[in-house]
Amino acid sequence: GKVLVFLDSHCEVNELWLQPLLTPIREDPRTVVCPVIDIISADTLAYSSSPVVRGGFNWGLHFKWDLVPLSELEGPEGATAPIKSPTMAGGLFAMDRVYFNELGQYDSGMDIWGGENLEISFRIWMCGGRLLIIPCSRVGHIFRKRRPYGSPGGQDTMAHNSLRLAHVW
Description:
With about 170 residues, the protein is α+β, with helices and mostly antiparallel strands. The chain has a single domain (about 5-145, about 155-169), classed as Spore Coat Polysaccharide Biosynthesis Protein SpsA, Chain A. It is built from 4 helices and 9 strands, in the order ββαββββββααβα. The strands form 3 sheets. Strands 2, 3, 4, 7 and 9 form a 5-stranded mixed beta sheet that branches. Strands 1-8 form a two-stranded antiparallel sheet. Strands 5-6 form a two-stranded antiparallel sheet.
């Protein structure tokens, strides 16, 4: 398809979640969009709304969520306006297929899990793109309490990937 949509397998979409994601991509194919990620309990599967947040990272290159300042939600579109985000979670986003290929897809030097979301976020910003959170699109996600799989040989893939991210960018 023209637009690629990436969703972790442990997600549940809401009604009318896709249309708000497609509009910014149609307007600018170098725009990568993410829904607001709501929380599904790993224990009970109860669904709860998440606050409007955007991606960030710390000095250890670990992804984190940051609250969006109220001043950014008070524009003409109010709380429905797309929000610029430095980074994304990585498992829930949509982007133009041609742009994904132009960027080089996912970095094949990354290993299994961890840091790939920051790497592609940095690449989007540094290669002429923009990354937006779309408040009118909401997708539920089961946040696991621990990593559900190991690494071959017990390698710390998060450390490996963070070091690669630092060296490449």
